[in-house]
Write a structure and sequence with these properties.
The protein contains 17 helices and eight strands. The protein has 535 residues and is mainly alpha-helical. It binds protoporphyrin IX containing FE. Pathway: Secondary metabolite biosynthesis.
């Protein structure tokens, strides 16, 4: 019985082994045939190549190619060398640099669903670090960004911006009065004038003439954020470092982050509370916060109050430095390009009365349609110093193919506005400050408006109209009242101010310190400025 069973068992095992082997052969044969057929007849879908760019090294990628200074200039050079769409890879992160208006429009604008997010940088965004998720300027594309952006544009669109023309004009008159008093500190006066407009628009608060606490707070926050954006923080690569406590050696980034969190909280809370108190005491000054609070009802979304706070706080953070960088450089432009200054003053004099006429008056924003050369000068200033050289980076949220090139999901997209606005094919003599390029009667065809300075698509700058009317009235007032010339060195020679126009390393195109000689154009003008300022 036992041997019959074991024989049967052996027979079963033999049959089993034979059939297993047969099955193995069959599977192997099938796989071999399948591979042959697939190889022969079905070619694997080759992934499209990346756009051209400098050759990467193994592991490091293009880390060593990345510029640390004059970043936008290097990107523009790559644009000439490799084409208007450039690909680099840094430690596995793909970066796509767009150097033409066409490429930026076709990708960032026309494919807005894919290219409207922002990269999330640990130092800036992480709640243990600077925790800047609150501002929609830096939020990823999604419902929270949409809500806050809608709130901004609902209360600060081109129509509403006109409500603030008086504030912008008063601020420009205060600016020329301060320059008259103390021409050397023109940068301080500019910062105050811009801060006055933005904080006025956001909260309706009147600022103190000097050292206003809100401006000081807002400036501190802008400085901290600027510092946090510098590409020097190791925590952005080694994210576990965010757990290192502040007291440990080498944890300076934690101190910066803690300072930013505290300053942000103060900036969001203090002016909002002051505005609520002013409204309660009967103030009628229009402002974003006032208009938005008026719409709160009992059944309003509970997030709305927080959104109002965050959007108001975003205005100073987003607008001040970019507006300042533009108008600050203009002081050097006026001195370096005297022909531009003269032509602008001739136009202003025709409308306002010349500097020696007792009937001289200061400009207003309603003069704008009658001052086409100043309007062209405004456009040329935006082309010349587009606030930030390489725009505010975007993040692609889906794999994409453009002109046959692969753009992987998660790529950082940079629209190099400086390079786009210095493209000789679009703006001949791009390195000469020439407002007439925007005058229809003088350039045929007229050159395109410098829209690239304000970004592209769904996240394009919503403060553009406000910024443009502030810049217009400031430029008109400054040129109507003053002559600008290069300063003289110890030997009496004029200082060459062209170095001011070299883009630096920061995100904002901030000019290095420079001085310029500023003189009032006449005694009559001095009197008119004093009267305008003192009411
Ligand atoms: C000349 C001055 C200014 C320049 C050159 C400028 C430029 C820019 C640029 C390039 C962007 C990024 C757009 C993109 O991602 O494509 C931006 C975004 C933004 N700007 Fe401006 N801006 C200026 C003034 C202002 C002002 C005065 C305000 C507010 C009062 C403002 C509010 C904003 C906001 C809130 C965003 C973020 C939009 C978003 O992410 O959805 N900007 N700006």
């Amino acid at each position: 019985m036992r041997s019959a069973t074991s024989e049967a068992w052996r027979a079963f095992q033999e049959v089993n082994a034979a059939s297993t082997a047969t099955l193995g052969y069959l599977v192997a044969l099938f796989c071999g045939v399948a591979v042959y057929v697939l190889r022969k007849y079905v070619r694997p879908a080759a992934r499209p190549p990346f756009p051209p760019g400098p050759k990467p090294l193994p592991l490091l990628g293009n880390l060593l190619d990345m510029p640390l200074t004059s970043i936008c200039v290097k990107y523009a050079e790559w644009g000439k060398q490799y084409g208007d769409v450039v690909h680099v890879e840094v430690l596995g992160q793909h970066v796509i640099i767009l150097n033409s208006y066409k490429a930026a429009t076709e990708l960032v604008h026309q494919r807005g669903t894919i290219y409207s997010s922002r990269p999330q940088v640990p130092m800036i965004h992480d709640s243990r670090l600077m925790d800047m998720q609150w501002t929609f300027v830096l939020k990823p594309y999604g419902p929270a960004w949409k809500r806050q952006r809608r709130l901004f544009t609902q209360h600060l669109n081109p129509t509403h911006t006109a409500t603030f023309h008086d504030l912008q004009t008063e601020s420009a008159y205060e600016l020329v009065n301060s320059v008259l008093d103390d021409p050397e500190s023109f940068e301080v006066h500019l910062r105050h004038a811009i801060g006055r407009v933005i904080l006025g628009v956001a909260y309706g608060l009147r600022l103190q003439p000097t050292e206003d606490p809100y401006v000081t707070l807002a400036e501190k926050m802008t400085r901290l954020v600027g510092e946090g954006m510098e590409p020097k923080f190791l925590v952005n690569v080694l994210s576990f470092m965010k757990y290192i406590p502040e007291w440990m050696p080498g944890a300076g980034f934690q101190k910066l982050a803690a300072d930013a969190r505290k300053t942000t909280q103060e900036l969001l809370d203090t002016p909002l509370e002051a505005t609520k108190r002013e409204i309660a005491s009967g103030s009628t000054a229009p402002s974003f916060v006032r208009n938005a609070l008026n719409e709160i009802t009992d059944d309003s979304d509970p997030e709305l109050l927080q959104d109002i706070k965050d959007v108001a706080g975003s205005m100073y953070a987003a607008g001040t430095d970019l507006t300042l960088s533009m108008i600050h450089q203009l002081f050097a432009v006026f001195a370096v390009f005297p022909n531009v200054q003269r032509r602008a003053q001739e136009e202003l004099d025709r409308i306002l009365g010349g500097p020696d006429f007792p009937s001289f008056r200061l400009p207003t924003i309603s003069d704008r349609p009658n001052l086409p050369y100043i309007e062209a000068l405004l456009k040329e200033s935006i082309r010349w110093t587009p606030g930030t050289g390489f725009g505010t980076p975007r993040l692609s949220t889906e794999e994409d193919v453009y002109r046959g090139w692969r753009i992987p999901k998660g790529s950082i997209i940079i629209s190099n506005s400086w390079g786009i606005l210095r493209d000789e094919n679009v703006y001949p003599d791009a390195y000469v400050f020439k407002p007439e390029r925007f005058l229809p009667n003088e350039t045929n065809p007229v050159q395109p408006d410098p829209l690239a300075a304000f970004g592209f698509g769904r996240r394009t700058c919503p403060g553009k109209h406000l910024a443009e009317s502030s810049l217009f009235i400031e430029i008109a007032c400054l040129l109507a009242c003053f002559d600008f010339s290069p300063p003289k060195d110890e030997d009496g020679n004029e200082v060459d101010l062209n170095y001011v126009f070299q883009p630096g390393s920061g995100f904002v195109l901030r000019a290095p310190p420079f001085s310029v000689t500023i003189r009032p154009r006449s005694k009559i003008i001095e009197r008119v400025v004093r009267e305008a300022f003192n009411g």
